Amino acid sequence: MEKLLIKNAKIVCAKNKINKVADLLIENGKIKEIGENIAVGNAETINAENLTLIPGMVDMHCHLREPGYEYKENIYTGSRAAAKGGFTSIACMANTDPVNDNPAVTTAIIETAKRDSVVNVYPIGAVSKNLEGKELVEMGLMKEAGCVAFSDDGKGVATSKMMYNALQYAKQFEVPVISHCEDKLAEGGCVNEGIMSTRLGLPGISRAAEEIMLFREVSLSEALNVPVHIAHISTKGSVDIIRNAKKRGVKVTCETCPHYIAGTEEMTAEYDTSTKVNPPLRTEEDRLAIIEGIADGTIDAIATDHAPHHIDDKMVEYQLASMGISGFETAFSLCYTNLVETGKISMDKLVELMCTKPAEILNISKGSLSIGADADITIIDENKKHSIDVAAFVSKGKNNPFDGWEVKGQVHTTIVKGTIVYKA
Length: 424
What we know:
This protein has helices at about 75-85, 105-115, 140-145, 160-175, 195-200, 205-225, 235-245, 260, 285-295, 310-315, 330-340, 345-360; strands at about 5-15, 20-25, 30-35, 45, 50-55, 55-60, 85-90, 120-125, 150, 180, 190, 205, 230, 250-255, 300, 375-385, 405-415, 420-424. The chain is an alpha/beta fold. It has two domains: about 5-50 and about 375-380 and about 405-424, Urease, subunit C, domain 1; about 55-360, Metal-dependent hydrolases (TIM Barrel, Alpha-Beta Barrel). Strands 1, 2, 3, 4, 5, 16, 17 and 18 form an eight-stranded mixed β-sheet that branches. A four-stranded parallel β-sheet has the order 6-7-8-9. The longest helix is centred in the middle third of the chain and has 18 residues, at about 205-225. The mean pLDDT is about 95.
């Protein structure tokens, strides 16, 4: 349909400071009008009474596995899982095979997405060739090909000199560098270092592994006066470092993930490999510090770090299992349940974290309900309680430790450029 009219929704848009019950009209894939009692002929109509309409959510950190690891996930399945999770725009990391370290791979991802994806896909290029930390990629050419950011995610940028050069280089092209903060201190570890690692007899990953490299990135950003974005922070110390850096005016932004908001190291007690993620699930003290950092604005965005794996990668001994959680389809509900339902933040703030800020950091024109913008929209049933069922995931990856958890807030409808791509 060329026209789609959504009636009687509670419309929430952090960027445009909208929070009211109203109608929204879509024409030819664009937002045409927001107002009360909109009447128009020849329009498909959705009655969204008692539902909440927000900008299509933006996931600035995910793994679609294509090219090279299509047995774990591909753009076709990953995009549909994202749509089910309420995401209309997703940015995929470079650790594919071949690595997205040149314009040819970037172009291939974009062309595949045009054919197979139901959501907007934005490639993130590698910082270094083959993720080896030895030679910078040609950021200018890769930005022209479609990369919106650069990251060696999956590992930290190998040396301070390499990161120093990467930040300077990226500044010329006005693209963010996203740092996976993991010092070599973490090598060989698989759970948080502490009581649980001792009890389980598993090698631990110290908080210091994250915080050492975070200190480095903050220092480089401050010295160069250039932005840096920090991926998936997980510790109380990281929140404190970033909070203090922002007070000094350092151009640092950061994200955390739903599993650090909802989960702790206690979930590893039964050696369930779906709990194995990098950085690892931390302590309750860390989880509460993450929530505090979200509430006070230290943490800018929430990203899924969607990392699907084949069952064979997880149905092994804990130390041998691949790291990662398949997170598209549980992200909103986990965040809503642990942040909004508990009164820690407002729905407006959650929209800022999952829509507005990720788009701003990536410098893409998404995450708002501006008139004339693409009609990328997520409709939420805030009152809907449900039980997480990984067997019902659209994603190929069923590796999610929250199976069976009772949560509140469910994605009702996802719309991309005026087309309904998911309906519960």
